[in-house]
Amino acid sequence: MATSSGLEPVTLPPETAGLRSRVREFLAETPFTARCDSWLTGADPAFSRLLGERGWLGMTLPERYGGHGRSPLERFVVIEELLAAGAPVGAHWIADRQTGPSILANGTEEQKRRFLPAIARGECFFAIGMSEPDSGSDLASVRTRAERVAGGWRLHGTKVWTSGAHLAHAILVLARSAPRDRDRHAGLSQFIVALPDGRVTIRPIRGLSGEHHFNEVVFDGVFVPDAMVLGRAGDGWRQVTAELAYERSGPERLLSTFMLVRLLHGRAAGPAAVRALGGLTARLWALRQASLAVAGALARGETPELQAALVKDLGTRFEREVVEVARQHVGVEPDPGSPDPLARALAESVVQAPGFTLRGGTNEILRGIVARGLGVR
C-alpha cells in the first residue's frame, strides 16, 4: 500500500546484511579521521580510490560503463555505513551521488565511456555549478550565459558555494543558452567543463573555522565543445530537476550529525536528557524509512521530486536539532582541539549546522515544491 507521501514502504533485502557487514569490517580495518558532516568536510582521494577498488562507487551504474549493476538499496546500505562512521567521502560524493546517474540518463555514448568508469574507480571527481551570487535557490534566475560559437559554446559567469571544485576533475554547469522569455525554465542547458582550465578561476570560500570546502568559480569565456553539452541544449531545467531528486533524498540529509547522536547515547544523564535523546532516535528512524522509500522509488525508475524535497526539509531540520539537544543536555563545550570526541564532534556540528538547511535548496524552496505537488499552491 502506498504511504500518504506517495511512496511505497521499503524493507531492505536480507542479502544486504552481508554487504553491511563487509563495509563495517572495511571501516574497522582502514585508518581515517572520522568527522561530522563528512560528505562535505571529509575529502580524501586515496580513501575514495579504496572504495572504488571494492566496488562501492558507481554501484548502480551498468557494468558496461565500469559500474557494478547494483540496486539503489544496496548503495543505500553502503552510504549509510560510511556516513554513520564519519568516513571521508567528500572527494567523490557529488560524482557518485548525482553526476554519474545524470550522465547515464542524459549523456552521449562518448561522455558515458569517458567519465563513468573513472567515477566508479574513484579517479574522477565532479563539482556542480548551480548557485550564483544574488540568486539564492532560484535556479531559474541563473545569469551564467552560454554563447554559441563555432564548434561549441563559450561560458561567462560566476557560481558560488561550489563544493569541492578545488578537487574536481570536471564541473557540470547550468547556464542560460537562449534568451529568457515568459517560461523562466526554458533556454537552460548543462555543460561539462573539464578542469583545470585557464579560463576557469576557482577561489576558496572559507567557513567559520577557516576550512575550505566551498568555492567561487568564475568562467571567463571558457570554451565547451558541442560534445560536452549534457543532454539536449535547452533541456537543462528538466535534467536538473531529476538530478536534484538524488541530491535531496539520500541518508546524508539526516546523518550529518549522526556521530553526535551516537556519542550522546553514552553521555546523556537525567530524565530530560534521556527523553530528548529518545525523541531524536525515534525521529531518526522515521526519517530513515522515508529516505529508504525514496531509494526504493529510484530503484523502480521513478523521479520522486516532491518526496525528496520533503526528506531534505525534515532531515536537515533534524540534523540541526541534534546539535541543540547536545548543547542543552550534555555539559560539554564545543572544542575542535579537545581530546574528548564529543567536544570535537559538537564543534564540527556547530560550525556546519547553518548550512544544513541551505545547501541543495533552502527549506522555503522545498516547501514550495511540496505545496505545488499537493496542489495547494
3D architecture notes:
It is globular and about 70 Å long. A hairpin with a 2-residue loop joins strand 2 and strand 3. It is built from 13 helices and eight strands. Residues about 1-5 have low confidence and may be disordered. Helix 1 (about 15-30) runs parallel beside helix 4 and helix 5 runs antiparallel to helix 6. The chain is of the alpha+beta class and about 375 residues long. The strands form two sheets. It has a four-stranded mixed β-sheet, with helices on one face.
**Rounded average pLDDT:** 88
Number of helices: 13
The largest pleated sheet is described as: 4 strands, mixed
Strand order of the largest sheet: 1-4-5-8
Order of helices and strands: HHHHHHEEEEEEEEHHHHHHH
| Contiguous runs where pLDDT drops below 50 for at least 5 residues | 1-5
Strand content: 5-15%
- Rg (CA only): 20 Å
- Helix/sheet category: alpha+beta
- Name the helicity range: 40-55%
- The best one-word shape is globular
> How many strands appear in the DSSP assignment?
8
Distance from first to last alpha carbon: 27 Å
